[in-house]
Amino acid sequence: MSRSSVPTTRSGRATMNDVAARAGVSLKTVSRVVNGEPGVLPATAERVAQAIAELGFRRNDSARQLRTGRAAGIGLILEDVADPFYSVLTRAVEQVVRDNDCLLLTGSCDDDPDREQELAMALCERRVDGLLIVPSATDHSYLAHEIKAGVPVVFVDRPPINLAADVVLADNVGGVRDGINHLIAGGHRRIAYLGDDPAIYTARERLTGYRGALDAAGIPVDEALIVMGRPEPIAIRAALDRLLSQPDAVTALFTGNNRLTTAVLRELSGRVDRPALVGFDDFELADLIAPGLTVVAQDPAGLGRVAATLLFDRLAGLSDAPRRVVLPTVLIPRGSGELPPPGRRAR
Amino acid sequence: MSRSSVPTTRSGRATMNDVAARAGVSLKTVSRVVNGEPGVLPATAERVAQAIAELGFRRNDSARQLRTGRAAGIGLILEDVADPFYSVLTRAVEQVVRDNDCLLLTGSCDDDPDREQELAMALCERRVDGLLIVPSATDHSYLAHEIKAGVPVVFVDRPPINLAADVVLADNVGGVRDGINHLIAGGHRRIAYLGDDPAIYTARERLTGYRGALDAAGIPVDEALIVMGRPEPIAIRAALDRLLSQPDAVTALFTGNNRLTTAVLRELSGRVDRPALVGFDDFELADLIAPGLTVVAQDPAGLGRVAATLLFDRLAGLSDAPRRVVLPTVLIPRGSGELPPPGRRAR
DNA sequence: CTGAAAGCGCTTACAG
DNA sequence: CTGAAAGCGCTTACAG
Fold first, then answer.
1. B145 and B134 assigned to the same domain
2. Domain assignment of residue A236, yes or no
3. Mean per-residue pLDDT, A182-211
4. Residue B205 · residue B193 · CB < 8 Å
């Protein structure tokens, strides 16, 4: 078996031309074999396969991509993969992406609008087939060009602003309503709401759920019981001190997200007389603290799965008007949300 | 300003040629402007910039990639992004990748060796500039071709098998040794070790740390106190029943990873007389359960950062022999690891 | 069943 | 300072 010459492609990699030369066939025949196209004599295919193995040939997808226009890749932009909510969402997206024989390109933007746009543009320059975005920007008109150029974009967890596009959301209003109703049913009337920065869509939505539930129950909303802002330990401590020690002290707390819940738990852990607590968003070990943490659970995996599936539907040609999908939440009682108000604790 | 004709590129996207035509310059001049190359008359650059804006031109990176051979992308393969250990690692990798103006392509392989290889090959076909792998396969010789072709590969958390390549590891042996020594210093002699499937590198290494610490302290290793296997609740319950009720019951447990620790905590939560517990790997809320969980903390962000940095060093030309970097662990006492053995609890 | 030619949209290497 | 030509490694559209 005379080994003629090592392929001397500049990149150190064999190309289809190298394979063709070695197998004594044309470039096109190699392409047929590599892509499993029909109409190649078994004997020919065999020779090509052998040349491929000998040269360690691996198709260059950037050339293929240039020619076909398909990247076989999807971009995912979110706030921070390190956050369990997003990492679970990412995993679900990955699964759908894989089922569609694509690769996933990801980036965290830390709620920085500029970074979101930067990432989106970089992904578009790479000509990904579609984009999944948990938005941080306050204006998404910058994507209009890309959508017109045929790149489907699906928003997740928060809707786009100044742009018509698909979006998959959790039922923020309904979820909080359920949680507040649960506390009301437990006898609570003085229920505080700790939410994130109202600049965040979900923070506003959830607050709406709080107000709605109180209204529906005929309990007047006391604005002094609403605390909105970034989860800073110091601010939270101050808020809790006030809420729990004021004349008509609160008997229950609702925390608007994971980070707030954790921060509140840390502050509460030293206290003797604990208020009831329901948190929005579930997390690992919520059942192992004492009392177990009652939560309104979102479905991050569902958000990712549904959004990614919708994206591939769009890629497959689905051309409705932009859709708005809302996924339900689930109340999971574990103890903290079932603590009665002090007056009733004697029984 | 006469608007001649909308660009009719097949993809619906303007190309450099379209821009050139509109600006009345050559393709090459457009390329110069887009890439910020010097030697373009300000007036010319201005005309080009305007044409770019009008056409919504965005450079096609797949063409650029084909020509330059640089993907400006890094591949990351791991077990499961949804696991906090990996999601934090991913975030750190992302940061380094971004600092180097690259994009990140990721994939989870669920400890499936075939899936690892599939992903690695797909990423190589896409001609990523380098690969970061938390390996699941038991043979990495399949990567020899790629490495020879110039794709640097850095392994993370577990070393490669049958392949010489860089690797960044946690100090598994030393970390467990510290944890066991801590328990011994607390008066414990009957210390059980619950580890994961010994097919996993880190599980074997950590067990080695356990044996070493006992040996060094002159405590004979009782094989009956070693339980290795996937973290199945049923198996763990059975093991705990046996370990805690046998004649010479254990007074302390060491759990070899996050999932084992969680599973053990769930089983323990009902019990009255708790053994001391130290877990390998830290997690959120470990301070909020009672007693606080004492852990040997790894540095997942450090692993990701150091590995990614090493990868870019390789891309920049660093050509030493393959390196092996070991990152230290830290013992964090929070209560569960400081519970004394029953004999001493009276004091 | 097989192949020669053209072209995807850029960058490279020259030339003027 | 600007541009014409060639080519990266594939796939497309034909032809035989």
1. yes
2. yes
3. 96
4. no
CB spacing of A103 vs B122 below 8 angstroms: yes
Q: Are residues B200 and B335 in the same domain?
A: yes
Closest residue by Cα to the C1' atom of nucleotide D2?
B29
Q: Could you give the number of structural domains in chain B?
A: 3
DSSP string over B159-184: --SSS--EEEEE-HHHHHHHHHHHHH
Could you tell me the distance in Å between the CA of residue A6 and the C1' of nucleotide D16?
33
B42, with CB counted inside 10 A (0-12, 13-18, 19+), is exposed
How would you classify residue B290: left for phi > 0, otherwise alpha for psi between -120 and 50, otherwise beta? beta
Examine the domain organization and report whether B161 and B30 are in the same domain.
no
What average pLDDT does this structure show over A75-89?
A: 96
Inter-chain touch B285–A284, beta carbons under 8 Å? yes
Asked, for residue B2, whether it belongs to a domain, the answer is no
A91 in the same domain as A42: no
Q: What gap in Å lies between CA A138 and CA A113, rounded to an integer?
A: 7
Number of Cα atoms under 13 Å in the Cβ half of residue A114: 0
Q: pLDDT for B55-75, tens place per residue?
A: 989 999 999 999 998 889 999
pLDDT of B293 strictly over 60: yes
Structural domain of A338: 172-298+331-344
Burial class (CB in 10 A: 0-12, 13-18, 19+), B24: exposed
Subunit contact B285:A265, Cβ cutoff 8 A: yes
Q: Does a structural domain hold residue B11?
A: no
Tell which of B6, B8, B81 to mutate to test the A interface (max A CBs under 10 Å): B81
Range with lowest mean pLDDT among A148-162, A271-285, B109-123: A271-285
pLDDT digits (tens, 9 = 90+) for B250-278: 999 999 999 999 999 999 987 877 899 99
Residue A247 has pLDDT above 90, yes or no: no
Min Cα–Cα distance to chain A from B141, Å: 13
The residue of chain A nearest to residue B86, with distances taken between CA atoms, is: A82
Contact B285 A285 (CB under 8 A): yes
B66 touches strand C (CB under 7 A): yes
User: Nucleic chain C: which protein residues 54-113 of A have CB below 7 A from it?
Assistant: 63, 66-67
Would you call A283 and B285 a contact, using CB atoms and an 8 Å cutoff? yes
Global pTM reads 0.92
Question: Between B65, B106, B289, which is nearest A106 by CB?
Answer: B106
B137, with CB counted inside 10 A (0-12, 13-18, 19+), is: buried
